[in-house]
Amino acid sequence: MSQPFLEVKNLRKVYKTKSKADFVAVKDVSFSLSKGETLGIVGESGSGKTTVAKMIAGMTPATSGEIYLKEEQISGVKRKQDIKRNIQYIFQDPVSSLNPRMKIKDILAEPLKLYFKLSKVEIDTKIDELLSDVGLPNHYKQYYPKELSGGQCQRVGIARALAANPSIIVCDEPTSALDMTIQSQILDLLKELQQTKGFSYIFIAHGLEVIYSISNRVLVMRQGEVVESGDTESIFKHPENPYTQALIHAIPKIEVPFFEIN
Questions:
Q1: Helix 104-115 to helix 150-163 angle, to the nearest 10 degrees?
Q2: Are 226 and 244 in contact (CB under 8 A)?
Q3: Which residues are within 8 A (CB) of 108 and not within 5 positions of it... i.e. 6 or more apart?
Q4: Would the pTM count as exceeding 0.85?
Q5: Residue of 60, 75, 64 whose CA lies nearest to 11
Q6: CATH number of 21's domain
Q7: What is the per-residue pLDDT across 170-220, written as a single tens digit (0 to 9) for each?
Q8: Per the domain annotation, does 254 fall within a domain?
Q9: For residues 206 and 134, what is the distance between their CA atoms, to the nearest angstrom?
Q10: How many domains, the chain?
Q11: Percent helix, strand and coil across the chain, each rounded to 5?
């Protein structure tokens, strides 16, 4: 494994409550991420996985702990534009994550204008390239999000993340709002993009079946803590923690009935 590209050390998030006891959402989480690697973070709702993802992306401040990107500390400081550009986010709900008042071309133009000095012609060309990268026809740039399906909106969300030319993309349950067929297509797209562009993924999911298909390593979280971690094959074949074992046993088993044709 190459030198860690992202390092997270003892990350902690505490929320103040009206009662005397504070709520500890994330408890001393540590991990690393290499270039071109996919780290899956799995756990039930409320396990703290999305809070971890948002702290890494700079959307939620950490209470304590350290985050390093290419050996530069990015936690506890105001992030420079280059750091913001390098870590992008794909949201769970593909429809609500897109501004309904903006055409697709304007949604994709935003990060291009924010992070790069491009002419109008260059922006238009890049928008066409981004749509092609995610498997959408160029004329879709004239559409509004409401004119697209959920799967098409998620492809736009992926294109928006790609527009910043990031090093890391945080995928926060990007397939959970889609039907099974579209889920598979989006996962295949994400794997293909990683192979061609070389960025890293932090992939959040509440079920291990999706994590297995895309991740190199897995972090299992429960009640804000990491209860088990390791490479994907080891986690699935030799889970040690009872919670991990329960998650694996909960994976749906499909039995195809046998029909005798007379």
A1: 20
A2: no
A3: 126, 127, 130, 131, 141, 156, 159, 160, 163
A4: yes
A5: 64
A6: 3.40.50.300
A7: 999 998 888 888 999 999 999 999 999 999 999 998 878 888 989 999 999
A8: no
A9: 25
A10: 1
A11: 40, 25, 35
